[in-house]
Amino acid sequence: MSVALENLPYLLRGAGMTVLLSVAAAVPATLAGLCMALARRRTPWLGSLLDGWLFLMRGIPLIVLLVFVYFLLPRTGLDLPPFWGVTLVLAAYYAAFMSEVFRAGFDALPNAQWEAGRSLGLSEPLLLFHVIGPQALRVALPAHLNLCASLIKGTSLASVIGLWELTLASLEVVERTLAPFPIFLSAAGIYFTICFALDRLARRLEVANG
Amino acid sequence: MAEPMLRLDSIEKRFGEVDILRGVSLDVQRGEAVVLIGPSGSGKTTLLRCINMLEDYHAGSVSLDGAPVGYRLEGRERIRMRDSELAAVRADIGIVFQSYNLFPHMTVLANIMLAPMKVRKLSRDEAEARARDLLLLMGLADKADLHPAQLSGGQQQRVAIARALAMRPKIMLFDEVTSALDPERVAEVLTAMRQLASEGMTMVVVTHEMAFARDVADRVVFMEGGLIVEQGPPQQLFGNPAAERTRQFLGRFMNAEGRTCG
Ligand SMILES: Nc1ncnc2c1ncn2[C@@H]1O[C@H](COP(=O)(O)OP(=O)(O)OP(=O)(O)O)[C@@H](O)[C@H]1O
Ligand SMILES: [Mg+2]
User: Fold this and answer.
1) pLDDT tens digits, A138-172
2) Topology adopted by domain A2-209
3) What is the structure's pLDDT at A81?
């Protein structure tokens, strides 16, 4: 166990990178998911396009996508640092699923809520911000949190293409110390704590918003 | 005669192949209370929804206080207003639905204050003062901080009326606002509407409450099959209807008169 303690600072620095990567991917994925869920309400052809994309993402393992981009990107002459490459893949991957989750949230609201808001003279943006959005987001929140947890765990795949974060840090320590059990147990504990903290935080925000 | 507050000119509306409104024309004068009656499926709800463009209609025109609603004519072309223009006209048209449709995530007070603040640009204090006045008027002064789910149907419906009134609309439309309520709750909502009419609010009321129509209406309009069959002052329409269809429709209500306690 002292092995774990000795190496904890190193693992925690890796965890910091994991959190950074997660935030960098989850924020744009959420925003893009939200925008797409809204945009497809107005633009039918966009809906089919998004369906196709979701269909693809659903059928391709994240790791294959990561490796693919890792090898493909340099060939396009685009010199993207690995951090941003991974962020891009994670964001694009999860945006597809998040747009579905938000769409379900919007669809859960009766049309009468839109009509009541319109009848009061609220413009569409006001209606979305004050009436539809808060209700739809509340419906979507649990599923969205699941996706966020899945994204956080998904960042561990970045280790495969050599991006240093918690999993790669753990692998390095294990290689050095030959003590896989305490180290991976620590890593598992740290991942769990991150996901758990996110869940608590989100639920607290939900309560605070009435 | 003065320019009417609301003018409907030959409104036509289809759902698919079915004609629902087949050329409805109606003028509502300032301060007038018009009650719209007719059998189920005659198009009453659809007509109200066309007035504030919750439904698009295929022909005809609506104008409020002299200004077009929903479509404007450019040459011979009928152009649907942009969303922002529609929002501006809708702000002047209050509508209350059978199913209240309050915003469940907001308190009663917030429900009423939202549109006055965001659309009419009232300050928070002004909007709150207006909202509290209306709640007082509706007998709900102590409910301001509750959420809609904590209220009875009759209370929710009065909040919905207050929410619409808070915009100071030029006209109020009511669509069977008491038919989802328990009988003992009906009276409290009708009382609020009666007071509104006596204060000179221009209103169009769809209802099956014939006693209310008789007491409050300046004019009763009978619709059937997407057309106005007959209209007139309540004494005339109830006492001596001209059309056979009106007579038949009212006949059914006369038998049930004991129940329509208004
Ligand atoms: N969205 C819709 N799609 C298709 N048909 C519709 C739609 N809304 C209404 N209708 C049809 O239009 C006709 C008129 O309906 P409307 O609701 O206006 O009648 P109403 O006079 O309000 O009846 P009620 O007294 O039952 O409320 C009905 O035959 C109805 O089936
Ligand atoms: Mg109806």
Assistant:
1) 999 999 999 999 999 999 999 998 999 999 999 99
2) MetI-like fold (1.10.3720)
3) 85
Q: Please report, as a single letter, which amino acid is at residue A121.
A: G
CB A25 within 8 A of CB A151: yes
| Kind and range of the H or E run holding B25 | strand B18-28
Distance CA B242, CA A120 (A): 38
Neighbours of A11 (CB within 10 A): 20
Q: Given the structure tokens 């038949």, which residue do they identify?
A: B248
Which of B48, B52, B118 has the highest number of chain A CBs within 10 A, making it the mutation to test binding with A? B118
- A119 shares contact with chain B (CB less than 8 Å): yes
pLDDT tens for each residue of B166-176: 999 999 999 99
**β-strand partners of B196:** none
In Å, how far is A33's CA from the nearest CA of chain B? 23
Q: Do B167 and A134 touch (CB under 8 A)?
A: no
Query: What value does the mean pLDDT take over residues B71-75?
Result: 87
Q: What are the pLDDT digits (tens) for A49-101?
A: 888 988 998 899 999 999 988 888 778 877 788 899 899 999 999 999 999 99
Taking only the tens place, the pLDDT of each residue in A9-59 is 999 999 999 999 999 999 999 999 999 999 888 888 888 888 898 899 889
Domain boundaries in chain A? 2-209
Does this model's pTM top 0.90? My answer is no
Residues 6 or more apart whose CB falls under 8 angstroms from that of A21 comprise: A83, A86, A87, A90, A155, A158, A163, A165
Tell me which residue has tokens 């629902």. Answer: B20
Q: Which residues surround ligand 2, an ion (CB under 5 A)?
A: B 45
Burial category of B108 from C-beta neighbours within 10 Å (exposed 0-12, middle 13-18, buried 19 and up) = buried
CB-count burial class (<10 Å; 0-12, 13-18, 19+) for B254: exposed
